[in-house]
Fold these 2 entries.
Entry 1:
Amino acid sequence: MGANTANFDPTRNYSLKLAACGLVVNFDASDFQISTNNFLPVSSGAWSVSTFENGLYLVYTASGSAAPTADYTWNVPTSGYWNGLNWAEGTPTALGNPAWTLTFGGNSTRYGSTNDLAGTFQLSNMVFNSSTPGTTNLIAGNPIEFGAAGGGIQQWGSGSFQVSNSISLAADMTFSGPGLGAVILHTNITGAGGIIKLDAGKLVLGGSNTFAGPVLVDGNGLLRVDNRKGLGLNSVTVSNGTLQVSSGPTTILEVGQPGINGLTALVTGSGSLWTNNAIFKLGTNSSFNTLTIANTGRMFNAAAVSVIGDTAPSNSAIVRDGGLWSLGASTLTVGTGGTATGNLLRVENSGVVTNAPLVIGASGGQF
């Protein structure tokens, strides 16, 4: 492919999307013949072709890579309650276990799985492995807690899952796996941990989240945020992959929530942040927050407003070292309101800010 493969890790899973230009007639993915040694001198993985959401993906899967062994496996496609005969291994006990793995498969029949066990159910991993794109299975009911470091959600299939249970994070939760099906967390997430988004899949945060740990996007996939407080109460790093805000015109993405100071948002390397039509705010009644776009990182706004220092002082946006902030038709305002003093936009060392209707607030914004 001509790409720099110096940091290729054959123990991880990768996807490469192939896009066709123009009209393609009688296209058949089976026409592709893939050989590992055409790419890299490694024999520890396999290449395959997968279609998902109108895209064609070339997928590398590490050999020996496997989902965690299930402690409880849902009987597909049964719809029902956790406290019942709906698991292959029998009914799990109430409150669960912070070392357990629950696995949910799937086929073309949509189902719902409802936690009716008393209390908050603890687990380490939730594994999704449905073979059917276009089918979204539902996980609902009483709260769950990811209780073990290194645990989280793994997506191994092409079918989607929506989780509406309240979720708490005792430690950082990792989203990973080679599957391309979307996982939608349509719930509020609390707890001390953060979220680490790896691999090529799609994770959607739909709730008003107050988890205390940071967010990391690293792994070529997509993290989509559908709520202005979806990113929790800590800092955000997008180093490889895409953080995307849903495109509703009233959506707001906040870095630095009221009363929480000193957060950072870093977009770097192969990372990109797309706010679409969302209003982007750095510092909402909070100070000393910093947005940095650097090392060829990219941030794209569409037709909305971007604000550095909403009504609070001393927030900074820095575009440097080949970073790009493309504002489209968005107006960039540095400081709004009489108390928003000392807010700063700095562009240096080959950083680029394009298409920027720029407003420097009367309260003391700086460029």
Entry 2:
Amino acid sequence: MRKIPLFAAGALFASFASPQPAQAADRIVRLYQSPRTAGMGGVRITTGFYEENFFGNPARTADNPAWRLFLVDASAETNLPTIGKIGDVVAGADLIQSISDTAGESLHARGQTFLPGFYVPHVRDTKLSLAVALFLSSQLDMNLRKSYHLTPGLITDVGPVLSGAYSFLKDDALSVGLTVSALYRFSAEKNLSLVELLQGQSFGPTLDGAEGAHIELGLGGQYRLPKFLEHWDFDVALSLQNLFAGTYHQIAFRPLTRAGPPRQQPRTLGIGVAARTPELWKFTQGVIALEFLEIGNSGGGAVFRHIHLGTEWRYRFLLLRLGLNQGYFGGGLGLDLTTWTADIATYGEEIGLNAGDLQDRRIAFRIGLQI
């Protein structure tokens, strides 16, 4: 136990004597992060299918390949430091020493589900497409700055979501869509110094949390350009999410009787372009996309944080994915069987305000059971 006061003294010295400013973590908080699109550099408003369109581009509800009822649709992600710290704790490592080794790093974990989810493109051969699901997401982020200040944060969202899209023009070249969601959010954030942690102060959602609920809207559109290149089609898309600015105060629902409102979900704009081809060499259903996302939701960070580039190609029942997310490499694999789907991906997320500040390398996976 002698290590604790010695380490505390070192932490105090470092926090006052270090000539370098602490490196802050400024994450972009998204309502949903798809493991499939994460492996494609984060592109989603020109490439999304099924559950990805609720908070991506509802116009692409019309592009779902077939009707589906998902009985299981669950995904999770974490980063490499979190995996390492869990291993340390399981192995019986000293908790304070384990936390100290995390200085300057970020811990991240997230779980999500749409259960059940029902998707019907072109209802009864009309131009109307629909999707409905019950959404649940919970994410925990914790950053120990180089000044040894611990900043934990928890966000949980739950509620029903409904998307509709309508197609226009010849060959359904234009689609417009709307998402309506009724979400309850609980969030908790705190800033702790290591000395406060050693003195017994802790992070408790019931003590540090806030809650609220609201009705929110998302709009989207997609247009297929007139054909100008043989074997390739080009689409442009636009998405505007959280039209009411995500304030979580319109609905008087606070089951935990905590003060509100919780952390806001800002109004967000996304624009993108995608090129598609039905076949290239031994691959099919190829897509290459460039998108500018989270405009309005980056906390004033550099423009580079909005840039996403990715591609996906099918080989029989396998899907191969590559991309650049905010300049960081990403890649993934998908498995598309008759009743089962699975995705795994790795990607880098910028959690600083500027390009190259602080990469958070994450691993994500998803599994789905559908009929």
